[in-house]
Amino acid sequence: MNTLKAFGSMVKDSFEHVTHGSKPYHIWMIFLTAIMLIGMYCYSVQLDEGLSATGMTDRVSWGLYISNFTFLVGVAAAAVMLVMPTYILKDMDFKHAVLIGEGLAVAALIMCLAFIVADMGGPSVLWHIIPGIGVFNFPSSMLAWDVIALNGYLFINITIPLYILFQHYQGKEAKRKIYVPGAILSVLWAVAIHLVTAFLYQGLQARPFWNNALLGPRFLASAFAAGPALIILVLAVIRRFTEFKIEQKTIKKIAMIVVVAAQINMIMLISELFKEFYAPTHHSESAYYLFFGLEGKTALLPWIWTAISLNLLATVMLTFNKLRNNPKVLYLCCFMLFVAIWVEKGFGLIVPGFIPGPYGVIAEYTPTGIEIGVTFGIWAMGAFIFTMLAKTSIAIELGKLRYKRKKKIASKTA
């Protein structure tokens, strides 16, 4: 009973804390709310008109929504790069950053699920992927595996930080024997959500662009570059606007993770380019469309070459210690990597898989204003959720939110 009272008190105190703050905080939350409202309007149009309001067709049936979903799976999995050294290897340099990383993973996973709902047309069709209700087709369907992987990883990333924060809220230390097994499971699960997502694409025989043995490992490499890069940018903002100070050596260690993952990602990219263009076959047409265009169709050319240029430039700059240890250069490179991998792992992966189609038809895809509005709305929702999670976590870790136990005063009768 006391535990329930303490938990109820934490929820109440957290809600009160996130509804109060500085002027910049309120401006930020109002801005995100406005973007979410625009996204909700665009989504209402899509619900009314159906997926015909989007740029997707029967030729290109996955577009901006699934591109963002694929990218955000990597952002969510990146939290494991902080969980493993903190909870398992006991590297205390990551201690203050790990809860921020897990909060980012929760927000990213919620965004992933939102993009799936948007891509399916609406929430009314969700019953199809609910075990025991819809046609789940487990274990033969890779989509069923993906549903389990995403929701399982979301559950893990909610429960572990929640337990630790709840203990700290009560002024207690979290017990390692309770959260370490979950942390180990989250490491394995983070790898699983990426491999399962990659297998989902690899298993489609009619899409040779995705039939690549490097797809799964490259998913992981790009995730461990883009995710920690975003975490560094978020930590920089937190250091600037809050009392929660992350030591520079922590950021340096995360930066090392970023540069190694980025280098591996570039090596895999070169390997894929060699495979596609050194001895091209009919199945290389999607790659030719992406990088050089086909029959005058060049919609993705500026996107992919900008992404590769940013990726290469950021990776080279981060390789040099002097540049990597300069905060301004580091933040710029992290931003470039994040944008580059978003393009490369989103548009550069999903859309070319459909062009040309199985019958050789070249039908290009361009997202509509409705799709862009919904996408911005979902990203704003993720930022809104993460801001509230981070604000509450920081307050508990700094000791500003603590459970106030009511002391029983025994009255003495004469």
Order of helices and strands: HHHHHHHHHHHHHHH
How many strands, which pairing sense, and closed or not: the largest β-sheet?
none
Shape: globular
Our estimate of the beta-strand percent is under 5%
Computed Rg: 23 Å
* Tally of individual domains: 1
Count of alpha/pi helices: 15
* Total DSSP E strands: 0
**What is the terminal separation in angstroms?**
32 Å
Q: What are the segments in which pLDDT stays under 50 over at least 5 consecutive residues?
A: 407-414
Main location: membrane
InterPro entries: DsrP-like (IPR054823), NrfD-like (IPR005614)
Membrane topology: Multi-pass membrane protein
Subcellular location: Cell membrane
Structure report:
- This protein is mostly helical and 414 residues long.
- The chain has one domain (22-397).
- The protein is built from 15 helices and no strands.
- The chain has helices at 2-18, 23-49, 64-77, 80-88, 95-119, 142-169, 176-202, 215-241, 248-277, 285-291, 301-319, 321-324, 327-345, 347-350, 369-397.
- The protein is globular, with a radius of gyration of 23 Å.
- It starts with a helix and ends in a 17-residue tail after the last helix.
